[in-house]
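Batch queue: ligand-bound targets. Current item pairs a single chain with acetyl coenzyme *A. No template structures supplied; prediction is de novo from sequence plus SMILES. Inputs echoed for audit trail.
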Amino acid sequence: MNTELRIPSVADWDAWLGCLELAFGGVPLTPESREMYATLSRPDRSLGHWDGSECVGTAGAYPFRVTVPGGAAVPAAGVTMVSVAATHRRQGLLTSMMRRQLDDVRSWGEPIAVLKASEPAIYGRFGYGAATPETALRIDTDRVRLALPPGTDRVRLRRASPGGALDACEAVYARLAAGRPGTPVRQPGWEKMPVNDPAAHREGGSPLICVLAERDGEVTGYVTYRVRPAWEEAGPRGTVAVRDLAALDPASYAALWRFLFGIDLTSAVECGNRPADDAVLQLVSDVRRCEVRLRDGLYVRLVDLPAALQARRYRAPVDVVLEVEDAFCPWNTGRWRLTGDAEGVASCRPTEDPADLVLSVRELGAAYLGGVSLSTLASAGLVREERPGAVAEAALAFSWDVAPWCPHEF
Ligand SMILES: CC(=O)SCCNC(=O)CCNC(=O)[C@H](O)C(C)(C)COP(=O)(O)OP(=O)(O)OC[C@H]1O[C@@H](n2cnc3c(N)ncnc32)[C@H](O)[C@@H]1OP(=O)(O)O
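Prediction returned. Tokens below.
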């Protein structure tokens, strides 16, 4: 196959986006989404495969910063808009784009690349590990009750227009992003994404509604949701579909959930993406009536392994030699001595010392944000222990007190 791989010019944008649309089923993007992507896209950080004048492959990489354990916001390539034309699939076009992109990311000095996959089977071969397990929830609000922490009744709730409340919501997001590994710091322009609400995407639901939680006149939380009304012989069976819910304190958090549970003419609350440690599951009276579906969230690829491992903090003191295999980015292959703890700057240097743990870069990516335990990976046979006790030591050090989560779409 004779295709040319190159950075698209601004004039290539329509053809480039057209390839992406077709690969995702051919439904044209709504004008709102098209305009948003046109503003956010970075042609200089994108790649296209061209077969003559036809664009047959696309990939992009936004310049993000992602919170890692310890609170640093690490430069990260946000890989996105990956597609290959149906006429050209399984001929290695994606592989060649991943090759070029990871070389580019390395040259940009971004220690990690992250993505959300359309299908989990695609990116492991390129060294991406599923790092932030997330849950999709559906709660039967006719039968489930909520326990409410002290102060819930003092939280004031106020409806606001999603666009008008953007600054207040973004301030809450920014404070939470700093404490939750896996969360991208919002880059300029991206605040529009959570309130992008094309009518074509509402699936019979209302336009997006925003409710703010306030304490002492300050916004302490928000929820955006839509209601999908439904009627049965026996009465109303509407669903509340939550897009985003965030709160700075337990009372505001509970007040928002209580509000969602009480919306008239509805009998269920659905959330497509919540963290694996979402506190609501500790408030519900009957967890069996909450459908909880585990999903893969953010995938992490260590591009510059020592820089990435040095950027995070470790929950307990650690001193281990990791023997890492990385066939796709061979500069990471080798033995690395990692030392670090909760406070100081970690060190990760090449070493000739014998290995304590043997693993691939994919497993290291999965464990990087503290959401997947090295012990679990060892139990699965994906991490090999060469020094007794090394798995337990490293698993504790890599773990974190909050589960990593990526509430940011891209
Ligand atoms: C971050 C994001 O943007 S996620 C969005 C990804 N895009 C999509 O899902 C859109 C629809 N799908 C597509 O456009 C294409 O099928 C792609 C991009 C997923 C794959 O592109 P291709 O050029 O066909 O991939 P390529 O030929 O390089 O395949 C490389 C390997 O991955 C495997 N592979 C590719 N796609 C898939 C898949 N969906 N599921 C499982 N394996 C896959 C191939 O079989 C091949 O395996 P091999 O090396 O063992 O032979």
